[in-house]
Amino acid sequence: MTADPPQSNPARPAHSGTQSDPRDICVVLPTYNEAENIEPMVSALLRLVPRVRVHVVDDASPDGTGEIADRLAQDNLGRVTVLHRRAKTGLGDAYIAGFRDALASGAELIFEMDADFSHPIAAIGPMVGLSVDHDVVVGSRYVDGGSLDRKWSLTRRLLSWGGNQYARTMTGLKVNDTTAGFKCFRRDALLKVPLDEVRSQGYNFQIEMAMRCQKAGLRVVEYPIHFSERTRGTSKMTPSIAFEALWRILQLRIIVG
Ligand SMILES: Nc1nc2c(ncn2[C@@H]2O[C@H](COP(=O)(O)OP(=O)(O)O)[C@@H](O)[C@H]2O)c(=O)[nH]1
Ligand SMILES: [Mg+2]
């Protein structure tokens, strides 16, 4: 892989994010019980320059997120679309389904991003700029210039950092932020990833995608971001998802190689 080695200099985009980009940019937004976040999140994305469209992937959220997304789609025809999945089978399944839709609709740049404002919307522009020269742009907390919400306790920081270092050691990943959930894929790059074979959910979905990108020899670059803790709604990640991640990483080493 040509993933940049641990970086001392944060990536700088080829051109400013305030410029328009002629490419068809699709942000895939997975949601489960994000009724409080979905409308402000989609509105903020639609105001963005460069112009993006949004594909919401909702897993039958009991709180009505899917219905709000439908209304947003009706109000913004062509710019907001919704995939309703029948059940919550995991973040990985939701993303794979969303990526397939984005590719089928002709998207040239495909973003994955949380729907809870944890990832800075302002980073999309610079990441689009970097995608001119790179296959995958990772919004990274663990390169110079990246940071975590100040509300995170020392324990949580250590767990996140330690889990990340463990994943890097076990998998041989060169990317610094192995569980980053904010990524931009060029269409041709995503087509090189065997989406049929991806099985992981939760944090491991991000690790597995990073491994498959590295294996496919894609040019990966990290762009430093500040990760903000959500202020509305609740996290869907549980300690059991985190612990499952530790075991599954060992399996991934064997499966993905
Ligand atoms: N469609 C779908 N979205 C999910 C699922 N699990 C989490 N999400 C969404 O994925 C994003 C990240 O999840 P979150 O709970 O915030 O994880 P955390 O940031 O690690 O605490 C949010 O937009 C969630 O609504 C799932 O099983 N299905
Ligand atoms: Mg979150």
Descriptive report:
It contains eight helices and nine strands. The protein is globular and about 45 Å long. Helix 5 (about 155-170) runs parallel beside helix 8 and helix 7 (about 200-215) packs parallel to helix 8. About 35% of the residues lie in helices and about 15% in strands. By secondary structure, it is an alpha/beta fold. The strands form two sheets. The chain has a seven-stranded mixed β-sheet, sandwiched between helices. A two-stranded parallel ribbon has the order 6-9. It has a single domain (about 25-255), classed as Spore Coat Polysaccharide Biosynthesis Protein SpsA, Chain A (Alpha-Beta Complex). The structure holds guanosine-5'-diphosphate (GDP) and magnesium ion.
Secondary-structure blueprint of this entry?
Blueprint: E1 25-31, H1 38-46, E2 53-58, H2 65-75, E3 80-84, H3 91-104, E4 109-112, H4 124-130, E5 136-140, E6 147-148, H5 154-171, E7 183-186, H6 187-190, H7 202-215, E8 220-224, E9 226-227, H8 239-255
Parallel strand pairs: 1-2, 1-4, 2-3, 5-8, 6-9
Antiparallel strand pairs: 4-7, 5-7
Bound molecules: guanosine-5'-diphosphate (GDP) and magnesium ion.
What's the total number of strands?
A: 9
Oligomeric state of the chains in view: single chain
Helix content: 25-40%
Bound molecules: guanosine-5'-diphosphate, magnesium ion
Overall pLDDT score: 91
- Number of helices in the DSSP assignment: 8
Low-confidence stretches: 1-9
Strand order of the largest sheet: 3-2-1-4-7-5-8
N-to-C series of helices and strands: EHEHEHEHEEHEHHEEH
The appropriate CATH architecture is Alpha-Beta Complex
